[in-house]
Amino acid sequence: MKPKAGEGIGIVEAPRGTLAHRYTLTRTGRLKEIKMIIPTQVNNAAINMSVKDAASKFIKNGVIKPRLLNSVEMMIRAYDPCIKCATRSITDRIIMEIIDQEGKIIRRIS
């Protein structure tokens, strides 16, 4: 088969949600462009709202109750169970920054 230019689109239902991908090839059959819409992107607004709701239950009047990190992680993993392993850092721990209305960090928890 001789290489040629073209475009391909795929939509797959993955364990974390719908994955859409598009590939564009040059006339020699080389990959020119790839675009992906992954489930985490699709669910991002819902993840953010769930994290905000979970955090608001554990932060009251500047007091942070135990289990805040666990609760926030549980909300994120409800949408994307693979995210912790996919974004693992060298330290392999979550760091949460609590900011005020002006965007100033008032507390860092890990």
Describe this protein's structure.
Helix 2 runs antiparallel to helix 3. A hairpin with a 5-residue loop joins strand 6 (96-99) and strand 7. The protein has two domains: 6-38, no CATH class; 43-91, no CATH class. The model has no long low-confidence stretch (mean pLDDT 84). It has a three-stranded antiparallel beta sheet. It has helices at residues 39-42, 44-58, 68-79, 83-86, and strands at residues 6-14, 17-25, 31-37, 59-60, 63-64, 96-99, 105-109. It is elongated, with a radius of gyration of 20 Å. It is α+β, with helices and mostly antiparallel strands and 110 residues long.
Task: Show the helix and strand layout.
Layout: E1 6-14, E2 17-25, E3 31-37, H1 39-42, H2 44-58, E4 59-60, E5 63-64, H3 68-79, H4 83-86, E6 96-99, E7 105-109
Antiparallel strand pairs: 1-2, 2-3, 4-5, 6-7
Helix pairs in contact: 2-3
